[in-house]
């Protein structure tokens, strides 16, 4: 699963604090920056206990130093940091077996594999079945699918 990482650095030259404004209780890692790769947007951190961790900054990542917006190039080896990661919101899905399908209005009744409840869903023009893209017209009763709920 892809994780979005949001970085904030509130720092003096030797101390930095990273936190997420959108999720204050986000999982975090504290440690010291051991390297900064500005070409690939990666920082390596020695976490508490000596564990080495790498963090890739993406376009949504934010770096704040002493309250001001900054970039990865402003981070230095030796900065003490706290990095919080934020998972993107998950779209609700249903996974299960198609027990009935209506090709005319692109709807299907799916028996949820977890709850065993039957849910009627509207299908997009293409659907992934076992990792392959299929058209709704190719779907039949018995297919195992995962459908994003809207």
Please tag this protein with its features.
single chain; 150 residues; mainly beta; OB fold (Dihydrolipoamide Acetyltransferase, E2P); five-stranded antiparallel sheet; four-stranded antiparallel sheet; 13 strands; disordered N terminus
| Poorly predicted residue ranges | 1-25
- Largest beta sheet: strand ordering: 1-7-2-3-4
User: Helical residue percent?
Assistant: under 10%
Strand elements, count: 13
Instruction: Return Rg in Å.
Output: 22 Å
Give the domain tally.
Answer: 2
Counting DSSP H or I runs of 4 or more residues, the number of helices is 0
**Highest-level CATH class of the largest domain:** Mainly Beta
Report the β-strand fraction as a percent range: over 45%
Q: Which architecture of the largest domain per CATH?
A: Beta Barrel
Q: What is the overall silhouette? A: elongated
Keywords: Signal
Signal peptide: 1-25
Protein name: DUF5666 domain-containing protein
Task: Explain what this protein looks like in three dimensions.
With 150 residues, the protein is an all-beta fold. The protein folds into 2 domains: 83 residues, OB fold (Dihydrolipoamide Acetyltransferase, E2P) (Beta Barrel); 56 residues, no CATH class. It has no helices and 13 strands. The strands form 4 sheets. The chain has a 5-stranded antiparallel β-sheet, with no helix packed on it. It is elongated, with a radius of gyration of 22 Å. The N terminus is likely disordered. This is DUF5666 domain-containing protein.
């Amino acid at each position: 699963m892809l994780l979005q990482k949001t970085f904030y650095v509130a720092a003096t030259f030797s101390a930095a604090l990273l936190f997420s404004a959108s999720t204050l209780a986000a999982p975090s890692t504290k440690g010291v920056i051991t390297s900064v790769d500005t070409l690939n947007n990666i920082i390596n951190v020695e976490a508490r206990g000596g564990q080495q961790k790498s963090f890739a900054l993406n376009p949504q990542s934010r770096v704040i130093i002493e309250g001001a917006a900054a970039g990865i190039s402003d981070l230095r080896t030796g900065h003490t940091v706290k990095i919080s990661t934020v998972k993107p919101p998950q779209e609700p899905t249903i996974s299960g077996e198609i027990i009935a399908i209506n090709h005319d209005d692109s709807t299907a009744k799916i028996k949820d594999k977890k709850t065993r409840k039957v849910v009627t869903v509207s299908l997009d023009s293409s659907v992934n079945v076992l990792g392959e893209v299929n058209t709704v017209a190719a779907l039949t009763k018995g297919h195992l699918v995962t459908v994003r709920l809207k």
